[in-house]
Every structure is written in C-alpha cells, then in structure tokens.
Amino acid sequence: MRASLIAFVSATLLASAPAHALTSLEHLEISLQGEAKGWLNATCTYYGLGWIDEDHARQALTRLMQLIRAHHLGATQAEQAKAEALERDPGCQAIWPKSDD
After folding, report:
1. Residue 71: CB partners within 8 Å, gap ≥ 6?
2. Residues 6+ apart with CB under 8 A from 67
3. What is d(CA 3, CA 8) in angstroms, rounded to the nearest whole number?
4. Model-wide pTM > 0.90
5. How many CB atoms lie under 10 A from the CB of residue 19?
6. Residue 81, SS3?
7. 3-state SS, residue 51
8. Torsion over CA of 37, 40, 45 and 47, rounded to 10 degrees?
9. How far apart (Å, rounded) are the C-alpha atoms in residues 95 and 85?
10. In a structure prediction context, what are the per-residue pLDDT tens digits for the chain, which is 101 residues long?
11. Three-state SS for 93?
C-alpha cells in the first residue's frame, strides 16, 4: 500500500512539473510585454514633455522596436505595441521612425 502511494505521488509530481514551468514562461512573456510597452510609452511621454530631443527619442524608439522584435515579442506583438503607444500618445507619430527595423 505504501509503495503504491509513493509511486502515485511521484508520478503526480513529475506529471505536474511542466505545467509550472509553462506558467513561469508565460509570466516572463507578460513581464517583458509590460516592460517593452512601458519604455515605448515613457519615450513618447518624455519627448512630449521636452525632456528628450527628437533625435534621441527617434533613436530610442528604433532601438526599442528592434529589441521587442528580436528578444521579446516578435513582429506581430511589436506592431501591436506600436499601435497602442500611438493610440495613447498620437503626438509620438511625429518622431516615430519611418522604418523601425
């Protein structure tokens, strides 16, 4: 009886481990999405307040979009992040790089 209980508990723990790892990966993706979108919004806000000039803001946006595509979210999510940033702050369109690749 005891041996079968140990086998059952072991099998249950081994079977449930991947679910916890997946949850951690999803949590990381959500964190990265929030961080990336936050930096896009901050750059637009700082430019609007005059805290950074046009050239630096454009360079920052270009670099952020490259990082989002390469390391964080992919092209689809990057375009969604861009759309959300511009919806939040339409004035940022004036400094958004023509090609942010």
Report:
1. 32
2. 36
3. 9
4. no
5. 9
6. helix
7. coil
8. 180
9. 12
10. 666 656 655 555 555 555 555 566 666 666 666 777 888 899 999 999 999 999 999 999 998 888 878 765 677 877 888 888 899 999 999 999 886 54
11. helix
